[in-house]
Amino acid sequence: MVCTSRVASPVFWLCFATTQAGAQWTVVDLDAGTGAAYGVHRDQQVGGYGRASLWYGSAGSWTSLHPDGATGQSAAYAVYDGQQVGSAYFASGERAGYWLGTASSWVDLQPPGAGSSAAFGVWNGRQVGSVDGRAALWYGTPGSRVDLHPTGSLTSVARGVYGNQQVGYAMFGNAFHASLWTGSASSFVDLNPEGSGASFAYGVYEGIQAGLFIPGNYSHAALWFGSVNSVADLHPQGVGATGSAIYGVYEGQQVGSATFKQYHAAYWSGSPTSWEDLHPKGSLISIAYGIYDDGDYTYVVGETYWDNTSGHATMWVRANTVVPPTSFSMFRGSVISGDLSSLLDSDNSRLVLRPGAVFSTEESPIQITLHGTVGQPSPTMLGFQVESNTSVSNAEIRIALYNFQTASYEVIERHPTSTTDTVEHVNVTNNPSRFIEPGTRNVRARLSYKALGAVFVYPWFARIDRVRWILPGT
């Protein structure tokens, strides 16, 4: 499995005075009594039981998002690029809405004439949830609501959104079916596997849907890849777990819970064997709901019960192992300015490259090969991250990793470039050791830049600020 992201590079620092959940993860108690943290993106975490809550990495950073005029409880369920979504109870009932970091920024999304609504997911100005028991997609205003409710369903809800995909579940007969949409009710795809008593999809990222299905008496954590027959069972094997579920997904990583008499917060990286128990020592119950990875750290949010009274909003943090390049060479094109040191930090000290000659429009006129050495011969996941831009807007970047088993490069991702620094991040979870040379543990990557269509300013340039391989912390 390969998962990718494109984000402007965030930078923030957190200090922790916490307990441990295994050697890799540090546990941060965000607050007692706020119940749960449901979503995380960049430096923000959101949640809350009675009052919608926003944090910036510590209990002391807590901010109430409870809207003015709300007469009952409120909660924030997801966050993306500084926009938080959720719901609040007013005299008229529960209403979907979003915030921009403060209680006073609340925007009501309930369409005119609706009785109740809630928003559970957000991506790039799009929100998903439900209106009067019907799955809904919004584009930032009440009037933009798109009804996703599938024909024949009794009730439905959308829980996650990424790109042009929305996921959730819809009831047919007496069972919920995991559901996938691409922007309209008619695009509905039933993800409920044959023989499953019910299924639910809670998250989606880069074409991968995550949730659970029930093949027997207990739920099993599951991934789908766009169709019902693509379901992958991630239930932990041989550890005594009776049930499992996935609630959050990001760049080849998944979080949720596994059941051992009580719920234990859980982490996966694409396979049943990658399962990790995040349950804090001494706690009664823990569940993980959301995940985000900026390369340096992986952040997981959820809730922990230390007693039988109230849940604690919780964040787990893992420092990843970052491997910088040790050398580079130009396969095509030339260096205008900068050197190896320009690639080590996100500091605007860039390696600037110009195009070379090509003999076909299929060839990229800028190609740079990067070399490094990793410490783990068989990691569960291998990431690669590049921060760069191009001087023209109509260009693309291709990221290829060298497969030492086939002695060839594999193109892992391709994306349009930007004229401002953008971070491209790919994670490989399916047999990542093929990209690591046996014995030496050497790794190799090739970045290719190509203009798309006519370029009216020549020469154009590729400017690389930082390059690195990323492995899970140990």
Measured as a percent range, the helix fraction is under 10%
Biggest sheet features? 7 strands, antiparallel
Query: Low-confidence segments, ≥5 residues, pLDDT <50?
Result: 2-20
How far is the first residue's CA from the last residue's CA? 21 Å
Count of alpha/pi helices:
0
* Strand content range: over 45%
Shape: globular
Mean pLDDT over the full residue set: 94
Q: Quick one: CATH class of the largest domain?
A: Mainly Beta
Structural class: mainly beta
CATH homologous superfamily placement of the largest domain: YVTN repeat-like/Quinoprotein amine dehydrogenase
User: Would you identify the CATH architecture of the largest domain?
Assistant: 7 Propeller
Describe the 3D structure.
- With 474 residues, the protein is mainly β.
- The protein is built from no helices and 41 strands.
- Strands 1, 31, 33, 34, 36, 39 and 41 form a 7-stranded antiparallel β-sheet that branches. It has a 5-stranded antiparallel β-sheet with strand order 2-3-30-29-28, with no helix packed on it. It has a 5-stranded antiparallel β-sheet with strand order 32-35-40-37-38, with no helix packed on it.
- The protein is globular.
- The N terminus is likely disordered.
